[in-house]
Amino acid sequence: MTNINDARNLTLLMDFYELTMAAGYFEEGYTDKVGVFDMFFRKIPDGGGFAIAAGLEQFCEVVDNLHFSEEDIEYLRGKGCFSEQFLDYLRRFEFHCNIWAVAEGTPIFPHEPIVIVEGPAIEAQLIETLLLVTFNHQSLIATKTNRIVRAAQGRPVMEFGSRRAQGYDAAVLGARAAYIGGVVGTACVMADRQFGIPALGTMAHSWVQMFPSEYEAFKRYAELYPDNCTLLVDTYSVVKSGVPNAIRVFNEVVLPNAIRVFDEVLKPLGIRPKGVRIDSGDIAYLSKKARKMLDAAGYPDCGVCASNSLDEYLVRDLILQGAQVTNFGIGENMITSKSDPVFGGVYKLAAVKDGGRYLPKIKISETAEKTTIPHLKNLYRIYDNDTGKAMADYITMADETVDVTDGITLFDPVETWKKRTFTNVRAERLNRPIYVNGKRVYENPPLRDIRDFCAAQVATLWDEVTRFENPHRYYVDLSQKLWDERQRLLTEFGR
Fold first, then answer.
1. Shortest CA distance to 443 belongs to which of 432, 454, 456?
2. Under 8 Å CB-to-CB from 47, ≥6 apart: which residues?
3. What CATH class does 152-335 carry?
């Protein structure tokens, strides 16, 4: 499998201030000063109950290839603001950081550390934008996709959005993220070649228009692709011509000499037609009509695919209205997360290492949600042993151990009087080591395994958390020790 980043050095994909700060650290002699940075997000897109982590594999590919080429050095020299000593440091750049991250496909929640970077601050600073652009984009699309897939209630969903994506990478990597989120395949051929995501598709309206008649277009398509005979029936009229002509091609007289196309082309091969696709009009009404016509013609196994600017709410409404749709093709609303197109992941300093100890750092804001959680941390998920359901997430300082043998009492970090004791539970650490001293120690699993993992993890969430409107807030709590440290810093800095 070819790395999508093989032909490119993405090291300079950064905000300019990261370079000026790195140069400042260098000039101050901070090349070995160790900082701890957290990547987290503040708000779940679309007002949902959870998000999906995605993008770790591509982030690893970029980190594995971090280097400043001579062309990069010459460009930076031309800016006229960097010393030759700093440029020489970049020329010899090596990565030494430790990185922890949650696995791709994991449901994630606001304010918890999704990625933790510990290492020389100058190095950790330089990867900020690379980290954020990778995780923000794919987590956004995986999250939106999962909403749409859940709305479909088990009906297959296909990703059809490449032409509406914001650029080439967004199309390919968006398809990857959509697959993690639960689609069964993609229209994007490069995503199939790159990641093994099944490439799917039928025909265009132009195919139908190119032939003297809709009927002849359908017939020829069935002859060319008997194993995947799905016919687009809305070029002219779904009810008056599209479905009737599809049925003719499936099973009626084609030529003046009374040759039966289905009998002639498909039946000898033991192949049944796959279905019809509706891409416009009132999908609920037309799918019901199509279903009745197909059933009457002896094709109850022939599916009805629906597309046409659908999202999770339209999919849900179609099902509630009794639409006879067996699978969905989703384009722009998925690949761009059109309803909420920004995943608000941020990257903030949490601690500085001084000798053998960590000095916690905090960013305080007038807005409570923008006040950070200090220190080097671990993230745990508490699961009920009887139901397997996720009960809460638990953030601790890195030197703490979590013992749930006799249960564990958690409290809301803001409304501290809200407490709950969980018994008969297990605690699973979510942030796993990815890099140790700059060397990758994590092997990315196959994409299909990530997809399956995502589905299994979403299934551990309560229905109250997964509902679309006003979902129950999933609790992300702090250990007493971490909460005390945060409160100490808030008091120290005048809050």
1. 432
2. 469, 470, 471
3. alpha beta
* pLDDT band for position 251 (cuts 50, 70, 90): low
Decide if pLDDT at 260 tops 50. Answer: no
The model's confidence at residue 268, banded by pLDDT at 50, 70 and 90, is: low
CATH of domain 16-142+340-492: 3.20.140.10
* CA torsion through residues 453, 447, 138, 67, sign: positive
Q: Look at the alpha carbons of 426, 144, 448, 174 in this order and tell me if their dihedral is positive or negative.
A: negative
Other CB atoms closer than 10 Å to residue 116's CB: what's the count? 26
The Cβ-side half-sphere exposure at 310, using a 13 Å CA radius, reads 33
Instruction: Report the C-alpha gap between 94 and 133 in whole angstroms.
Output: 22
| pTM for this prediction | 0.94
Q: Residue 259 is encoded by which pair of tokens?
A: 């040759």
Domain with CATH 3.20.140.10 in the chain: 16-142+340-492
Span(s) in the chain for CATH 3.20.20.70: 152-335
Q: In what order do the strands lie in the sheet with 185-186?
A: 185-186, 157-159, 327-330, 303-306, 275-278, 230-232
| 162, 165, 168, 172: CA torsion to nearest 10 | -50
Q: Which two tokens stand for residue 245?
A: 């002509």
How far apart, in whole angstroms, are the C-alpha atoms of residue 1 and residue 418? 50
Rounded Cα distance, 373 and 40, in Å: 10
The C-alpha torsion from 75 through 81 and 86 to 90, rounded to 10°, is: -30
Please give the structure tokens belonging to residue 336. 């761009």
Span 156-189, pLDDT tens digits: 999 999 999 999 999 999 999 999 999 999 999 9
